[in-house]
Amino acid sequence: MFKKTTLGLTLASLLLAAGSATAANYKIDKEGQHAFIEFRIKHLGYSWLYGSFNDFDGGFTFDEKDPSADKVKVTINTTSVFTNHAERDKHLRSAEFLNVTKHPQASFTSTSVTKEGDGLAVTGDFTLNGVTKPLTLQAKLVGQGEDPWGGYRAGFEAAGNIKLKDYGITTDLGPASQEVELIISVEGVREK
Amino acid sequence: MQWKNSPVQFGHISVLMHWLVAFAFYAMFALGLWMVGLGYYDGWYHRAPELHKSIGACVFAVMVFRLAWRFISPPPSPLKSYSTATRVGSWLAHVVLFVGLFTILISGYLISTAEGQPISVFGWFDIPATLFGLNQQADIAGVIHLWVAWGIVIVSVLHGLAALKHHFIDRDITLTRMLGQRRSD
Question: How far is A123 from chain B (nearest CA, A)?
Fold first, then answer.
């Protein structure tokens, strides 16, 4: 088990590193819980309902000079969907929405990164409910620098909109609730 | 008025609770299946589950009293005409029905309270969550809630058919004594 994990991580870092020789690899700080995958959807058109996926992991590479070489990969455990309401979360996990028994994982893997204004446009393949479609996230570097414990960190917030129907989620929540905004707000710890 | 059970007769309290729970169970079974299929914009989308949970809490109270009542006022002894197989079978069916009903009531409670929220009983008062945050609690409790309900449907139908068999074929008072008739043997 340990060996498998190590191998997986090694392969993952090789893949991440493959983009550029100078780009640094960052592992999402799940251990310290400085990482959030949130989503929001309009309720009836009158308010925002926020939720999160509590269990996910991933990493990114970041080269300030050449962002086009950057790569991002995040894997989400969909059973961890949480909106602070037991019955709603059970409903969201059911086949009417995320169908988590059949599709326990969602993921985002970047395919291209381009500079856009003072931010980055991160385009990639987003897989949800077993459906993979291209998705562009608008990302912004929140900040970066040395941390007080001898490490180096960089944090991003990225957001993008998905249509539920595009991902095979056909349960109708009303005209104002066809789209969900996905917000990935993470801090990465640079790998040595 | 015969309120308590006697060795030869079911008292009114046992009779009333038996039919009350039987009626409530089937009403709740129908309500439960119906409410989970409601669309988000249906006027009953919130009201039906609220009703389901409130009634469930009341049925739980009745079932606790029913269980206690068996000790306070034990039910009449089985009819002398019953064979050993009938006695064992009916004892088993009653145990399954009691355990099953409590399982449904408790699993239902564990669905709604899985993330710590209380259950409101008709808005009169709240039942707080006690056990919550377990891994996949609402989903597992939900599966148990549904399938044990189907199990109760099957066992209770058999229980009813057996009572009808006693009434029409054996021509004894098994069924009518659950309507309060006194036995004369």
Answer: 33
Tally of residues, chain A: 192
What is the reported pTM?
0.83
Q: What is the CATH number of the domain that holds A174?
A: 2.40.128.110
Among B9, B4, B64, which Cα is nearest to B184's? B9
Residue of B39, B113, B136 lying closest to A79 (CB–CB): B136
Candidate from A86, A171, A174 with C-beta closest to B114: A86
Touching check for A86 and chain B: CB below 8 Å?
yes
A140-175: pLDDT as tens digits: 999 999 999 999 999 999 999 999 999 999 999 999
Q: Which residues of B touch A93 (CB under 8 A)?
A: 139
pLDDT tens per residue, range B32-86: 999 999 999 999 999 999 999 999 999 999 999 999 999 999 999 999 999 999 9
| Number of domains into which chain A is organized | 1
Across A106-124, b (16+ Cβ under 10 Å) vs e yields bbbbbeebeeeeebbbbbb
Quote ipTM for the complex. 0.81
Domain of A27, in residue numbers: 2-190
